[in-house]
Amino acid sequence: MTAEELRQRIAAGLACTHITLTGDGRHWYASIVSPEFEGLRAIARHQRVYATLGTSMQTDEVHALSMKTYTPAEWAVQGQQP
Prior knowledge:
3-stranded mixed sheet, alpha+beta, BolA family protein, GMP Synthetase, Chain A, domain 3
């Protein structure tokens, strides 16, 4: 899977204002900003992202996904622009 394919899958299932992905095709690192994360703890945020991937994690299409998840306000505190 390419970074663009992974980005499209996440964005199709989750309203995102920013997605950054790096990886080697199986092991991915992501920064994801979404207003849908508002009020959610980290585990619930990660579950929302995993839900967008469907069976991709189970079939090893995406072997590993390490992520940092932010609301737009949290992202702004980091000094980042959406």
